[in-house]
Amino acid sequence: MLRSTVLGSTSLAAAALLGCTAGPPPAASQATTAPGGATAQKPRKGGVLKEDINADPASWSLFGTGGTTYTMTSFAYERLTAHTPGSDPWSTDLHAELAVAMPEQPDGQTYVYTLHEGVKFQNVAPVNGRPLTVEDVKFSIDTITKHNLWKADYASVSSVTTPDAKTVVVKTSRPDAALLNNSSSFFGYRVFPKELLGTDLEKTNVIGTGPFIRAQYDQASKIVFKRNPDYWAPNVPYVDEMHYLIMPDNETANGAFLTKQIDILSSAGTCHQEDELWAKVKNFATTQTSPRNSPFIAFNMTQAPFGDVRVRRALSLAMNRDAQTQSLFCGSARLTGLLPTPFGLPPEKVPDLAANIKYDPKQAKDLLTAAGVGADFQPEIVWTPQYNSDPSYGDSLQLYVGNLKQIGVTATPISIDYAKWIGPPGVYRPPFNFKDMLWGTQKTLYADPNSYMLLWLHPNGISNQSRVNDPALTALLEKQQTQVDPSARSQTIHEIQNMEAKGAYYAYRMNGTGKVFVQNRVHDYHYHGSHAHAEEFRSAWLDNA
Amino acid sequence: MRCNGLLRRSSGNCRVLRAIQRPLVALHRATRGRVKPELILMRRYLVDRLMLLVVSLLGLTVVAFVLLQVIPGDAAGLLAGEDASAATVQRMRAELHLNDPLPVQYARWLGKALRGDLGRSLFTHETITHTLLVRLPVSVELGALSLLLATVIALPAGIVSAIKADRLPDQAIRVVAITGIAVPHFWLGTMVIVFGSRLFGWIPPVGYASPFEDPWRNFQQCAIPIVILGAGVAASLTRMMRSSTLEVTREDYIRTARSKGLSPAAVVRRHMLKNALIPVVTLFGIQAATIVGGTVILESIFNLPGMGRLVIEAINRRDYPVVQGVVLAFGTFILLVNLLTDLAYTWLDPRISYR
Q: Do B74 and A251 touch (CB under 8 A)?
């Protein structure tokens, strides 16, 4: 089964060969501006930076999954190469992390990493600050690439060797275009001490080489990370401590930001809440954009009439996306389609997608009539309350049910408990136990375009809720996996986008650009919010530290 | 010594009950003849109730276990995440022993629980005992102080309302009590945060601190939810106190007490209070039982890591060991509260016997 990993780079070129940076990520690389527009300031060491999170990590396990688990464990576990926030909210850049530079690639199937010297594990029992060795790196990569959760992503990795005390060589059985991105993401080559494996610590604590040590965890209350005094990279991080305050209620988190009890607010809730908060904090805070992908609708194409492309197009044309933008996103929203830029073409450059996302109820009715769909067409749309942490999820469904009524289709939303949703047997996961339509949420921000395409479009994709089974499309999907030449791969991906849009296998909805609020006393902080989370804080520093 | 007839079939349970009975019977034998008959009766009553408590707890855990199994989905799917294959989830189920027959899973849990090991969370891998030790005190603090506040408000308010029935004080108290019952505590909590932050630039400090760690911070965090919870409970208790006091006021012995020339305060204190308290104690017991686990929304609003949030999260995640541990803790608490309520009746009204 194919599975996904975490988010992506500025372009495929950057992903593979170009645009990657040697050495550790830049620290304090740009001037910061105070509200009054003052110019560059020198970073100051010290201080406590506080941010909200809305739930405990589901697990602290080295092999745990889930957004908060990834973001929290990323402070301790580093990789050979890593993603860092890029020049726009949807993009990241690849940087060398524990490696001194991006790997040498003498051929398309060999990656040679040279480790930094002087790297130590955090000074926490049982590793007690011992030096990192190439054997640790090999052990980590072997463990990660063979683990049940990720072995499909690393199926191409055939061997990991350590020819000398500073070098790790990864060889693949075939060219793998996604490998560099995937190995740099949350599920990447995370380096951990072998002493953790097989002990309770593997599941309850995080001990790596990272810039922050988990010092305190109070369930349902707070998580405290302290700066690693033995961190191998010079001068960073600047802050002494990171405090994560667990606040499940939006209004409370907003109130905490308003009263300056937290420095970073990851989400203020709806766009109306964002606007209201902004009106009150604009004198002492700024905002950054939180990238979001398009939510989608899946169709059970094995069930009539969804196997007919005219019906799928009609159901897309019936959706009033302008109304969604105005009422749910305060007039500011975007649609990314199958792939966000910069991975693929924007919607306006994919002709069939551009045609499908217009609001045209008349054409929608005509298409249904042409497809022989009558008044007895009353589809069920399954959804899950778990996704209501996104305020627009449930509201957009209600709007859509109204849109369908206007073309004479009576749709019935069916709520499914989340545990049943992901099963097994699952609704969202194979065997996709839903009758007609599935109301999806925004996709995870993946590290590589491969995940967006294979999971949803390949016959074996574990998120292929529409049961897409197009041999020509499948051939292209498999072809791009091995195209390490960025421009060739780009072309194939564009073909995939066009083919997917032509088949209208999924319908896409608008999504707002969320805001992250940042107090002015925080400098050099660049939000990304996904697999580059720990990197957001590498260079951050505080006024009055 | 003998076990209850039902339990005699199960020698293992019989041994457990005998272990509980042994010290009590030894005490009884040692003090026989030197202790008042009422106390002997009370001890016997306590032993019977404790035995019943154990049986009730066993039944509770079985019901909770079965109900959680009936709900679709399990922890393995949630642990593996949306992007895991079905094969991966099945492997995880096997690792967590979720494929074992249900009686085997329950018996395994019970065997460990009887040895004091409540197991570990399937998600965080923390021991349940540790989790309960961390979360329970927060709920106990919230619950106990709000009940105390409710009592301090409700008893005098209810008495005054009854004594001054249909006059201005009574009407004012009744309006306030009705409002207290009608206004949902979670709405009140949200309004405190919304208006506090916007109008006064203040909300309770986020990041819980225990009263031993930082008493002032703890006070700031807990005072408002305690007042909100206490006010809600006080409203119900006030109305109950008023109605039971009114009933007692109409009794002949109260007229006799007044005609003897006793002051109003003495009439209330010596003759009215204990009799009026019986239905109030019943309601108090019910409120106490629900308040510890029924505060999940207030805990979320005020960032208090209590049992309410714990149990909701555990159920949503199908974290069976946590749910079982919480059910055990709640069940013990509720049954003990019921026992104390029953004991309180005999103190309030000596005519009520342990027989």
A: no
User: For residue range B11-32, what is the model confidence (pLDDT) as tens digits?
Assistant: 455 666 677 677 767 766 665 6
Question: What number of C-beta contacts closer than 8 Å exist between A and B?
Answer: 164
Flag if B131 and A430 touch (Cβ within 8 Å): no
pLDDT, tens only, B126-168: 899 999 999 989 998 998 899 999 999 999 999 999 989 899 9
% of chain A exceeding 90 in pLDDT: 69
Given a contact cutoff of 8 angstroms between Cβ atoms, the answer to whether A507 and A318 are in contact is no
- CA A277 vs CA A37, A50, A256, A424, B43: distances in Å: 22, 18, 11, 41, 62
**Nearest residue on chain A to B302, alpha-carbon basis:** A252
User: Residue A414 pairs with which residues in a beta bridge?
Assistant: A382
Task: Verify whether the Cβ–Cβ distance A60 to B125 is below 8 Å.
Answer: yes
A53 in B contact zone (CB under 8 Å): no
CB contacts, 8 Å: B86 with chain A:
1, 423-426, 429-430, 462
Cβ-contact A477, A453 below 8 angstroms: yes
d(CA A115, CA A78): 12
CA distance A256 to A249: 11
Which overall architecture, per CATH, does domain B135-348 show?
Answer: Orthogonal Bundle (1.10)
Q: Which of A256, A259, A424 sits opposite B90 (nearest CB)?
A: A424
**A545 and B CB contact within 8 Å:** no
B91, B125, B193: residue with CB nearest A255: B193
Q: What is the pLDDT of residues A305-327, one digit of tens each?
A: 999 999 999 999 999 999 999 99
| Region of residue B137 (phi > 0: left; psi between -120 and 50: alpha; otherwise: beta) | alpha
- The gap from C-alpha A376 to its chain's centroid, in whole angstroms, comes to 40
Count of Cβ atoms closer than 10 Å to residue B339 Cβ: 17
**Contact between A5 and A448 (Cβ < 8 Å):** yes
CB contact under 8 A, A152 and B85: yes
Answer yes or no: is the ipTM higher than 0.90. no
| Cα torsion through A454, A458, A460, A466, rounded to 10 | 110
Q: Does A246 touch chain B (CB under 8 A)?
A: yes
- Per CB-CB distance under 8 Å, the chain A contacts of B186 are none
C-alpha B300/C-alpha A439 separation (Å) is: 28
